Protein 1
Amino acid sequence: MLVADDHRLMREGTAALLAPEMGIEVVALAANGREAIERAIATRPDVVLLDLNMPEIHGIEACAVLRNRIPDTHVLVLTVSEQEEDLYAALRVGAAGYLLKDMPPAELIKAVLDIGRGEPTIARRMAARMLTDLRQPDDRPTKGARPTKLSRRESEVLALLALGATNLEIAAQLRIGHPTVKTHVRHVLDKLHVRNRAEAAAFAARNSTTGGQM
């Protein structure tokens, strides 16, 4: 993986935290957005851990470039920003996850491993706000063709999918049976015309940004 942060202490400290973990190899560090792009293209890591507010090229723009140039690399944002617009902007350009720098080290390690396996992850505080957004009714007209509208329960399942929650975790959170969750997930994917949970999470981010009604 590659760690990109303009603060040396954060950059090197994060690398030192992650490097000893089995399944994680830090192949490069970057101090700004331009370095992140150049070194990621050169090394093609499985995961880029990317700060947002960096010199030369902002993290959002860097993420967009990386997703275009090396689409097999997963970009995981690690930031202090709790602004919803930053979360949605990052997900819109293809970030596979959005985490906050005050998270426990063990959770960061787990998130990096999850992202490497293609499992999206969002900081719980940010995901909770996304869930609130998705639950709010919106009467504004939508533009263009829309997927089939989700039920309230399906919208709740979608929001938890955006968290990276497993079916068992969704069942516990919503207090419903595991088979019921599997049915809801299948309906969500079918109604949104998406292939997997990651695409469903990206759809949730887009609709939270645009105010689209589900």
Protein 2
Amino acid sequence: MSAGPSRVLKADWAAEWFDVWRREDPSNYVYDVYFDRVTGGLTWVDNPTTTLTPIDTDAYDFKMDVVTSDPDRYEKMAPLTHEEHSDILRRWFDGWPEQVRSACDTASLHRFLDSLAELFPDEASHARSSWNTYQEACLKDRAERWLHERGFAVDWVDG
């Protein structure tokens, strides 16, 4: 398959996904993601089926109206599987002390970071930043593979 037109994707990946990873159960899908064939960007839509936190259904309905109004423009990406979530968590926790690696969920991680922040605010801030950087790299890699499968070349742009 020949590469299609180059697309420049602009997204604040860490900010968009950080909220997902704070959830108790990473197997719940909090966002639906749509690829915009015109701009090459990604549209993030809260998934109202999650039971973890209240969802602004008005905002969801508005965004769904946008992405469903032009089916030739927007293509829904497959959600992360439970295995993909677990793999990202497992690989990220590999660099942490045993008591954190064995936590199994991000709620434990954030309780740990909250405790750490009381004594070592700089270290806690760095840890949160590392978390964002790691998940950004994983998700960019996954999105790039997904786009290449559809014939798009990808130029990543920060901001």
Protein 3
Amino acid sequence: MTIQDIQSLAEAHGLLLTDKMNFNEMGIDFKVVFALDT
């Protein structure tokens, strides 16, 4: 999943995210993204 994919998904739910995101791969099954809503 790219930053643009995450921004599009968030926007569909009423969030406008900046492109400053921190990815944390906490395991082989999932990825966590920390982002700021503008």
Protein 4
Amino acid sequence: MTNAAEPTAVVIGTDPTRVGEIVADLEARGLRAAAFVGDPAEDTDAVAEMLAELFGRRGE
């Protein structure tokens, strides 16, 4: 399980290459980062699931 107390940047966008570049840059700087590629307004369940996984709080 990941450290839920550690600050995390969530990069959201529709261009997978650019989103990946940004996440890689943040991680190279030692930061915790995650990516969501798509439209979060159209896939709210996936965004919620991703955030729950990042912060280790499933079903709470």
